[in-house]
Write a structure and sequence with these properties.
155 residues; mainly alpha; 3-stranded antiparallel sheet; 1 helix
Length: 155
């Protein structure tokens, strides 16, 4: 049977030191993970605000460029990337973006005639940003979920 050399008390201190090191590393990794998660959510919120504003502006542009005196909003989002009312290419948006929070489709806000007047996220998650919005997004202050951030076109 092999015998351990050295002082058994010294082995205990080494093991204790190693456990302490593992604990500290675990706490540091947890802090980094939390920071990364918060930063990621803030970036998604900023992207949601930017993209939502792009949709709002595109809907206003579509409405204002109506060739007939009876103005209306588009029936589908694809009409913003290529306006079917003109024989030449008119783009109010370069492309359709997915909802950055849910990663899927947007929920649409429609008027009485079925035209799209706005978009909002389908996510029911709690937003980190609750204040400090621009004037056009002032209604988002105190919202309890991302779905309450509704980007509505007001021509």
């Amino acid at each position: 049977m092999a015998r351990l050399r050295g002082n058994p008390r010294q082995s205990g201190f080494t093991l204790l030191g190693l456990l302490f090191l593992v604990t500290v590393l675990g706490l540091l990794l947890a802090a980094v993970g939390t920071t990364w998660s918060m930063r990621s959510q803030r970036e998604k919120e900023a992207e949601l605000l930017f993209i939502g504003d792009q949709y709002r502006r595109a809907l206003v542009s579509y409405y204002r460029l109506e060739p007939s005196p009876d103005k209306h909003f588009p029936k589908k989002l694809a009409d913003l990337t290529r306006d079917p009312r003109y024989p030449h290419t008119v783009r109010h948006l370069r492309r359709l973006w997915p909802d950055p929070i849910s990663g899927g489709d947007w929920a649409l806000v429609r008027d009485e005639e079925g035209g799209i007047t706005g978009v909002h996220s389908t996510s029911t998650a709690l937003p980190r940003k609750t204040a400090g919005f621009t004037h056009e997004n002032a209604a988002f202050e105190g919202a309890s979920r991302y779905a309450d951030w509704v980007f509505v076109a007001t021509p």
